[in-house]
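Q: What structure does this chain adopt?
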Amino acid sequence: VFKRKVTLPFINVAESGMPIQGRAAVHISDARYCKRFCGRLMENIKMGRSPMWMENRLRSNGIRPINNIVDAANYVMLEIGQPLHTYDYDKVEGNELTCRFAGEKENLKTLDGVERILHHTDLVIADKAGNPVCIAGVMGGLDSEITDKTKSVFLEAAVFDSASVRRTSRRLGLRSEASGRYEKGINPARTEMAINRICQLLIEQGACTVAPGLLDEYPIKSEPQIINTTIDEINDYIGIKLSKNEMIDILESLHFSVAEDNGKIRVTVPDFRMDLYGMPDLAEEVARVYGYSNIPITTPWSAVTKGIMSPSQEVLFKVTDILVENGLSQVVNYSFMDKNDLKKLNFPEDSSVYNAISIMNPISDEYPDMRTSLLPGLMHTLQYNLSKKNDQVAIFEYGHIYEPKRFPLDELPKEYSLISGLMCGGPAENGYPNDQREYDFFDIKAVMENVLSALSIRDYKIRRTNYPVFHPGVSAEFVKNDVILARFGELHPAVLDKWNIKRIVYGFTISLPDIMIFAGAATNYKKIPKFPSAERDLAVLVPEQLSNENIENIIRQAGNKHLEKLYLFDLYQGKQVPAGFKSMAYRLSFRASDRTLTDAEVDNWIETIVISLGKVNVVLRT
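A:
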């Protein structure tokens, strides 16, 4: 910005004494997880305080000065970005360091004095005897730390796999300045510079001598990042008109190397920048130096199109709107669960819901699996609300469930969209003068009917459901063309007992992909009929094993095409009804669009219906 040259330190190490080769060694067991491993030997150590200027700079960066050796390592980490680690040379068995994965149940006492149990996914630095002396990129071991009695220091500068360091740091609950830098990524091209820089600083302080030679395991060389683009591309991307010389000056002032090649420019990214990958990143660098306030405001050309919702979004929003209108509140739970909660929901052991994907690094022991049902999360939400004396709970959740195609998992699982909900308490708020009517089966049935009505889904059937979560005698499902649209009913008493809930709870579950098949059907209108309807009441004695659905199906099949409406208006079982039977009364409405029906016609149709009912042992009640 001020066009001033940045003065970078010239690094030169004044070596003396015997070479390091043959006196120490470094090794990498797997180049995928350690890209570079450098080592140096410092001798004739004189422990003491660091210069005041170094201590002040460390404090200003939130690091407490300790001694000249450790302070120099921290200073170089801040200056160059490469973490370093120091070992007492005489405490490293065989004077050899190897980067490898820990063995199962290996342990190491770290610098904070805590005994750490290691995992086979943890990278460690081990001595020649195979004993861990450091958790790579996280924290060193107590047994090899430098002290006031240290005479020689074995220096380590390495680049470890960021994912491995992050995993280990998180598992152990250890966060350090070094681990934070490893997690973000480090360019191995700067490792040699960093280890030489600390040697230079300590030699200048008279704190040590440095053995000639550098140990350097560098299996895969880091190639410089090169971005090919043009001046016009960058100008067009930003919306400015900088000349070639102006743009190159900006890039070179930021330590980019720029070479021209047949109208294009080849930009070599400096090794301390690992956040640039393409032309848009270069354009951002140019724009911030040029000045965002200097960029003119222009309207970009684009083909403007009207934003619309997808059919699945329209269905989802309609369903959630209807549920909210019916008094339910939307909740959002984690996409995780514990498979043990499925047992508490009464699912049999052979149910597919137990085919859940285990999470390698769960956020909590309470959520080790990807969910295969929305109900566990909703039950926890209900349980929590009831424990806080919130007795009126009507909630629903929209979310995905995850079904693996096979185990072991070798591809992404299938995802299904579901909406599930629970209702407990009553529709009215507590307090005078409201009555304390509790939710019943017909409340949740009405909610499901309202949802299907809003989606223009008609001509569906209702039948008993065998869904294990619900009470077998107080539950049902809506079905159309053998596709289950919604399941609903009272939660099974065994489920409530396992969740320690002392209230009656009703629930439902809707599969969005299934209702999408029938949603949005066209509405057919017809004229209001001119002629009156003819109504008849039919009271019959029905064997207990037959349901209302069975009787209605028989009546509709036997009734004439003029049978317009049919509904049950009375159900009775008592002393006046024979054992094994129930009394059911139906109202039938007949209508013709072209004439007024005669009593004789209607009586004839009723007789046909009675004869059909008699075939299943259903008789008229007298």
